[in-house]
Amino acid sequence: MEINQQISKEITEVFDQLKGIIQDLSDEQINQKPADGGWSIGQIVEHILRSSSGIPDQKVQTYNRAFDEQVPAIRSLFMDLNSKFEADKSLLPRQESYVKDDLLERVLARKTKLVLDIKDKDLTLLCMDMEFPKLGYLTRFEWLTVIATHSKRHCYQIEGVRGNFGY
Question: What is the pTM of this model?
Fold first, then answer.
């Protein structure tokens, strides 16, 4: 499978998973905060949306390593559900209250934007706009893997919050 189709499929699946997890919740459930002071489901969804707004690829270049070399490290980092991370301030949720239908529209719009952006890009190029902490510069493919894997991690988090509340 061509790499653009591969990552497009992964992005589609994770955003469809996110939609499926929240679509049967009420606005009240979306906004309920866990007793441990964690984020509400709505805040987690906003964080996913903020962190998946695009990739830093205004300046790109060719290089001499595999386009997916960092994928195992990315997956290992985000799928270690016992590890906790502090989100960059720019990615923090900014609202206290959310409307489920609004979030669902935004999830669909984000998925559509990402899939359209992926379609015709050379995903093997190295993005030089910013480095990923501890991994350095990533290819477009690797940045999209960050988006997909990070979003999947938070889908598990939402499922945990739902389970803790019994819905």
Answer: 0.95
